[in-house]
Amino acid sequence: MNAASPIEPKRGWNMSEAPAHATKWRRRIATCICAASCAGVAAHAAQPSFAPRLSAPLAAQPPSPPAAQYPLQLLLDDNTDEGAFGVTAGVSAQQFMWFNRFTVPAGGYSLQQIWVLFPSSPNITVGAPLELAVYADPDGNPANGATLLRTINVTVQAADDLNFSIYDLGQQSVNLPQGDVLVGVIPRFIVSGTTPPTNPATVDTTASQGRSWVAVWSGDPPDPPTLPPDALITRLDDGLLPGGGNWMIRAFGTALPVQAAATTPALNTWGFAALFAALFAAATWQLRIRRRAGKTN
Ligand SMILES: [Ca+2]
Ligand SMILES: [Ca+2]
């Protein structure tokens, strides 16, 4: 990243709506980029961009499915976004990945649906290609990498700050391990260096849960998008956005069937002794009955 380049407001940034600490925020971004550059990562001109908006008067639709249908409910947001985030390179947009870190409880679950809310933007159209990515991250630290479980190629279904794009995984459902998993989105429709500055990732900034991350590569994210990237991976809270925020990415899953006992329980020494005693008692009882029957005859 180019730490020497000043961070200028991006297209969509309305200074009248900008928070009073916008200058401080931009300075934090510059510090973050400097940290990545000084760490020896590949230098390039990627810069974060954020377009705030007033909290939506209407809740995003549709409501989350009931827990009876999807017992696994992974979401961080409060149902309204307060802006959209993107990455730019010079005068154009750049591909990146935004992802949430979720924690899957014990019990065994299958990921069935991923929901993503996209903002209204002239550069985001219905049908635009995306890549979804699901990772397992047992150590809970995405910065040191994670195990890619599945990628799914999909397209934008709605881009209006209101209606979630809902991706039913069907045959591509993923059995999730207990512990942390990462669910991310890569805007493959962005042609780095050509697409005008675009902020595709809606953010709920009302109460950050500290689980929303950004991954930036020195070029387009590779396919498959292995982590960590070669340029920058960090939480929104760690210098990218004042107060942090939550990506409006949700995931829902069903419970896996409980595995039936595959083998007959083994008997220990006491078990064999009890079984032997029971068989001996039954045989003795049968013998007595036969003797009585013989005397009677
Ligand atoms: Ca909100
Ligand atoms: Ca990790």
Round the mean pLDDT to the nearest integer and report it: 82
Question: Per DSSP, what share of the residues sits in E-state strands of 2 or more residues?
Answer: 25-35%
The percent of residues in helical segments reads: 10-25%
What's the helix-strand series? Answer: HEEEEEEEEEEEEEEHEEH
Domain count, please report it: 2
Bound molecules: calcium ion
Structural shape: elongated
- Biggest sheet layout: 6 strands, antiparallel
- The radius of gyration is 28 Å
How many strands in all?
A: 16
Contiguous low-pLDDT stretches (5 residues minimum) are 1-44, 260-264
- The number of helical segments is 3
| Helix-strand category | alpha+beta
Distance between the termini: 105 Å
Biggest β-sheet: strands ordered side by side in the sheet: 8-7-11-5-13-14
The gist of it:
By secondary structure, the protein is an alpha+beta fold.
What is the element layout, followed by pairings?
Blueprint: H1 22-38, E1 46-52, E2 72-74, E3 83-89, E4 92-93, E5 97-104, E6 109-117, E7 129-136, E8 147-155, E9 164-168, E10 174-176, E11 179-186, E12 201-204, E13 212-216, E14 232-235, H2 236-240, E15 246-247, E16 249-255, H3 269-296
Antiparallel strand pairs: 1-3, 2-16, 3-4, 3-12, 5-11, 5-13, 6-9, 6-10, 6-16, 7-8, 7-11, 12-15, 13-14
Bound molecules: calcium ion (CA) (2 copies).
